[in-house]
Structure formats: C-alpha cells, structure tokens
C-alpha cells in the first residue's frame, strides 16, 4: 500500500505528536537519598515505581543525609528516614505516590511534601492490616507547613 505524501505526513504527525504528549505527561526521575540499611526506604521506592515513577536511589551516610535534608529545605519537624527530589520539589518520608502526582500537577510554590516520622500503614511501612492515621504536609518556603492530605482516616 502506498501513501501519498500529505497522508504520510499527517500519520507521522499523529505518531510523533503522541510520543511528545507521552513524554510531557511522564514524571521526571525521582532521586532518592537513603541509608543503605533501611528496608522501608526500599519498600517506598518500590511503591513509587509501581505507580509509574522512575527512581534513582543513592545510599548515603547519616551525616550526608542530614546535610541533604537541610539543603532541601527539610527541617527537623518534618524529617523522616529518606529524602527525595523530583521536579524541583523535596519529598520527605513515606509520601503516597498519588500525593506526589498531585504536587507535580498543581505545582504549588513550596519546598515539597513530607510525612514526618514513619507512620505504620504508609507506603513502605505496611504492617499487615495495621494502619495509623497520618497527614501528608505541604512544606512552605518559610518552613511552615499545612495539611496536603489525610491518610488512613
């Protein structure tokens, strides 16, 4: 079957347009900084990859992780076991993938999201049917925070 040039150009435009659209909607890589011995961090990374993210994990020493948190705008009140960076935002702790997707879609003027501590039942902290309620916080540029979402309510 032979296509005339205008038809072929139109078909190629649709194909390449679809590729461009797919590339635009795909999230940037997630850079995760964690301790080499923390299994819950690895479980969180698995959660994120199962929800379409590409993760690049880097094991760092505790002192280096503290410096990364500080430079990422994560204060002690928002700290957890791992810190990630994506699309210009910091993601601290066991933040659900859906909240990260919402953050990237809405693009608020903020440092990023945090789940302080390590709540049971958050992504990577599963323990059977046990789930404690927790909040995902939006960290503002001035270091304060507000509730972004409530989980396991």
Topology (SSEs and partners):
Elements: H1 5-25, E1 30-34, H2 39-50, E2 55-59, H3 62-71, E3 83-86, E4 89-93, H4 97-106, E5 112-115, E6 134-139, E7 145-151
Parallel strand pairs: 1-2, 4-5
Antiparallel strand pairs: 1-3, 3-4, 5-6, 6-7
What descriptive keywords fit this protein?
153 residues; alpha/beta; Glutaredoxin; 7-stranded mixed beta sheet
Structural summary, described in words:
The protein has a single domain, classed as 3-Layer(aba) Sandwich (Glutaredoxin), CATH 3.40.30.10. 35% of the residues lie in helices and 24% in strands. It contains four helices and seven strands. It has helices at residues 5-25, 39-50, 62-71, 97-106; strands spanning 30-34, 55-59, 83-86, 89-93, 112-115, 134-139, 145-151. Helix 4 links the parallel strand 4 (89-93) and strand 5. The radius of gyration is 19 Å and the shape is globular.
The poorly predicted ranges are 1-24
Look up the CATH topology. Answer: Glutaredoxin
Put simply, the count of helices is 4
- Beta fraction: 15-25%
The average pLDDT score comes to 86
What Rg do the Cα atoms give?
19 Å
> How do the SSEs run, as a string of H and E?
HEHEHEEHEEE
Structural class: alpha/beta
The percent range for helix content is 25-40%
CATH class: Alpha Beta
Question: Major sheet, described briefly?
Answer: 7 strands, mixed
Find the count of extended strands (DSSP E, 2+ residues): 7
**CATH architectural category:** 3-Layer(aba) Sandwich
Shape: globular
Q: How many domains comprise the coordinates?
A: 1
Separation of termini?
Answer: 60 Å
What is the CATH homologous superfamily assignment?
Answer: Glutaredoxin
Order of strands, main sheet, comes to 2-1-3-4-5-6-7
């Amino acid at each position: 079957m032979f296509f005339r040039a205008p038809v072929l150009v139109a078909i190629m435009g649709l194909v390449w347009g679809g590729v461009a659209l797919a590339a635009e909607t795909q999230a940037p890589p997630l850079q995760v900084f964690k301790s080499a011995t923390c299994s819950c961090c690895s479980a969180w990374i698995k959660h994120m990859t199962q929800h379409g993210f590409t993760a690049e994990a880097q094991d760092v020493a505790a002192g280096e992780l503290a410096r990364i948190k500080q430079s990422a705008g994560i204060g002690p009140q928002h700290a957890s076991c791992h810190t990630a960076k994506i699309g210009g935002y910091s993601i601290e702790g066991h933040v659900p993938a859906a909240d990260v997707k919402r953050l990237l879609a809405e693009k608020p003027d903020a440092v990023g999201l945090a789940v302080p501590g390590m709540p049971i039942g958050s992504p990577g902290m599963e323990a059977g049917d046990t789930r404690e309620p927790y909040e995902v916080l939006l960290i503002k540029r001035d270091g304060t925070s507000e509730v972004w979402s409530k989980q396991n309510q």
